[in-house]
Write a structure and sequence with these properties.
CATH class of chain B: Mainly Beta
Oligomer: heterodimer
CATH architecture of chain A: Sandwich
Structural class of chain A: mainly beta
Order of helices and strands of chain A: EEEEEEEEEEE
Number of domains of chain B: 1
Number of domains of chain A: 1
Number of helices of chain A: 0
CATH architecture of chain B: Sandwich
Radius of gyration of chain B: 13 Å
CATH superfamily of chain B: Immunoglobulins
Distance between the termini of chain B: 36 Å
Number of strands of chain B: 11
CATH superfamily of chain A: Immunoglobulins
Largest sheet of chain B: 7 strands, mixed
CATH class of chain A: Mainly Beta
Amino acid sequence: SQQGEEDPQALSIQEGENATMNCSYKTSINNLQWYRQNSGRGLVHLILIRSNEREKHSGRLRVTLDTSKKSSSLLITASRAADTASYFCAHPRGAGGTSYGKLTFGQGTILTVHP
Amino acid sequence: NAGVTQTPKFRVLKTGQSMTLLCAQDMNHEYMYWYRQDPGMGLRLIHYSVGEGTTAKGEVPDGYNVSRLKKQNFLLGLESAAPSQTSVYFCASTDRRRLNEQFFGPGTRLTVL
């Protein structure tokens, strides 16, 4: 399987705390993405970081990418109960133009934010 | 603008029965995908399509067939359902300009008894 690994598998925090999730992957990539999945729903794209970027911000989200270690992290600052969801990293499957948008997903981190 | 829709939302089948899951998108996307999601396994790609009339196998295609007769629709068929196909199925779409972002439907929860 080409699936990456995410850790922790589950994370439980209090509202206002920061949440950090990590993702490792196995192949060379040109970008890495993070998705959120609320219970019983489909996945929603959160943020994308390209291989030539080391850090990217979007609102309360901060993503880092270390291509030498084949790893990425997603930080959610000042978490809210509404952030409770599963978070998945994903990267293109296949090289360059042959990927046809296909993605390989990690196994996900279940985040629970307690009010 | 409904985005990506899936029907049905839930279905229970008996072993050996057949069914078709329908995915529709109204964003004029060229690329469409079918995934299955199982506990602890993340999402695994079943089949995908890069345009009307074309389909290709993904990571776990066995036991499934697909068709893309119209650009906006992508059908996933189970000819003879097995308990191992109990899962949540997601459809997604994207296009050449947004290859890096997929748009997902709400999912179909299938149970095979």
